């Protein structure tokens, strides 16, 4: 939803150790895709563990607007009666994707090769984000887009009546761009090919295969080559959504920096295209056990046990950035409590998320007494050691859930409390955040 409710300031304070079990919600990326692929399938898809954050609820509303029957039966339990590839109806009203880049970009992709027109908008954050990265490749299929200047929302997309398949090399490492092209390719005859220099999250590929698409992936000298044969009949599936490693990052990082903490976080996805934060934390000296590795919902998962740890700053290589792109804000908080310097390279995509996350983290960390350095593509945090961060500031969150949660995690371990000016965006990805953190013993108040 694009209307932004009244801001909700929130304050985090030091408390005793964090203990207990943190059952984080379903994966946001997989939840969007379960609804979208369900809508593009023939038959009834059943989803369990769906993330009921606002981003995903907005995608559910959009799928209804395109003609799918999307029904909630209970917590996380949803069904989608699909219309099949090429079966989308023209929406009668504007599609409002709220705060969600994933929602709007994937939905543009899946309507782009149908002979229908749709107008998209979003909240003040989404209306600032670049959409040409998606509409440029979609134009190769024959799709037309009429945007506000700078390729911003609101935007009207006119689907190609007679689409041609596309071969496209993504110019930025982005699973959203890759996925938009693959979803558009579903309704184009022949082979659509996407080449990505650096692999990004692969949920679309895994799930498209699971729904019966003819798709194969090859790692070559020019990068990862994904080939999809258009106009399949996708078949409805049962999707058990695994828990979100990006949401798990908040209790995990809090436990690492709040003295004497010891928590467990069960069933967290360990997909290699998503687990860069966990690799990085272990390299920093984090005490994390990865127990009971298994497969759930087509994804590798493990039960995590996380204890307060003495951490060392490290250099995070640029090639790892895509596998932890949403976790850099909270990593920069953890880095402030490490000994020594943490250098995060290859992070310029953070500048076009819900906010400019390099700038938002840099300004807030400075306000909390942490020394940082930044350039266009790099963030450097000078660690102050366990207990060494002064805090005592109010940090601006810029309608960005991850910035809000990151500074609240910081306030749980800093010398003085930390306030965020607006915690309401947390509901886009992690509505249970406050309750879950309180159950671990965290002191976060409104
Ligand atoms: O495809 C997805 O589900 C996502 C891809 C990433 O964005 P980019 O593709 O823009 O990097 C990520 O930041 C976002 O939270 C979810
Ligand atoms: C970048 C994010 O999401 P989106 O691009 O879907 O808005 C995020 O959840 O951190």
From TrEMBL:
Keyword annotations of the record: Amino-acid biosynthesis, Aromatic amino acid biosynthesis, Cytoplasm, Transferase
Pfam families referenced in this protein's UniProt entry, alphabetically: EPSP_synthase (PF00275)
UniProt keyword Cytoplasm, yes or no: yes
EC code(s) of this entry: 2.5.1.19
Keyword Ribosomal protein among record annotations: no
Assembly and oligomerization: Monomer.
Name recorded for this polypeptide: 3-phosphoshikimate 1-carboxyvinyltransferase
Organism: Frigidibacter albus
Gene name of the record: aroA
């Amino acid at each position: 939803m694009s209307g932004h409710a009244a801001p909700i300031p929130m304050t985090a304070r030091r408390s005793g150790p964090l203990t207990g079990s943190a059952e984080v919600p379903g994966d946001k990326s997989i939840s969007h895709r379960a609804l979208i692929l369900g809508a593009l399938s023939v038959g009834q898809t059943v989803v369990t563990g769906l993330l009921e954050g606002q981003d995903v609820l907005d995608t559910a509303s959009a799928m209804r607007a395109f003609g799918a029957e999307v029904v909630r039966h209970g917590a996380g339990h949803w069904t989608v009666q699909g219309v099949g590839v090429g079966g989308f109806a023209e929406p009668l009203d504007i599609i409002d994707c709220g705060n969600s880049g994933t929602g709007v970009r994937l939905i543009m992709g899946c309507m782009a090769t149908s002979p229908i027109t749709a107008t998209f908008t979003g909240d003040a954050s989404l209306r600032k984000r670049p959409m040409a990265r998606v509409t440029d490749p979609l134009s190769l299929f024959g799709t037309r887009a009429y945007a506000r200047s700078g390729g911003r929302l609101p935007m009207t997309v006119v689907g190609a009546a007679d689409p041609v398949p596309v071969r496209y090399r993504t110019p930025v490492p982005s699973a959203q761009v890759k996925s938009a092209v693959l979803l558009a390719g579903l309704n184009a005859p022949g082979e659509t090919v996407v080449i990505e220099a650096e692999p990004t999250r692969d949920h679309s590929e895994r799930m498209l295969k699971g729904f019966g698409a003819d798709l194969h992936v090859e790692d070559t000298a020019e990068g990862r080559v994904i080939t999809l044969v258009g106009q399949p009949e996708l078949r409805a599936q049962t999707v058990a959504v695994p828990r979100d490693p990006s949401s798990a990052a908040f209790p995990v990082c809090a436990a690492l920096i709040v003295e004497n903490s010891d928590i467990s976080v069960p069933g967290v996805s360990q997909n290699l295209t998503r687990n860069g934060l966990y690799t990085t934390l272990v390299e920093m000296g984090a005490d994390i056990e990865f127990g009971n590795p298994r497969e759930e919902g087509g994804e590798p998962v493990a039960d995590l046990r996380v204890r307060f740890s003495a951490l060392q700053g490290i250099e995070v290589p640029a090639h790892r950035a895509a596998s932890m792109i949403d976790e850099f804000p909270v990593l920069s908080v953890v880095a402030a409590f490490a000994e020594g310097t943490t250098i995060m390279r290859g992070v310029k995509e953070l500048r076009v998320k819900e906010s400019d996350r390099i700038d938002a983290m840099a300004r807030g960390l400075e306000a909390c007494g942490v020394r940082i350095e930044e350039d266009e593509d790099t963030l450097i945090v000078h660690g102050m050691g366990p207990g060494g961060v002064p805090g005592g500031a109010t940090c601006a969150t810029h309608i960005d859930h991850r910035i809000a949660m990151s500074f609240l995690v910081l306030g749980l371990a800093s010398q003085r409390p930390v306030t965020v000016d607006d915690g309401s965006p947390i509901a886009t990805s992690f509505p249970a955040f406050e309750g879950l953190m309180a159950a671990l013993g965290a002191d976060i108040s409104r």
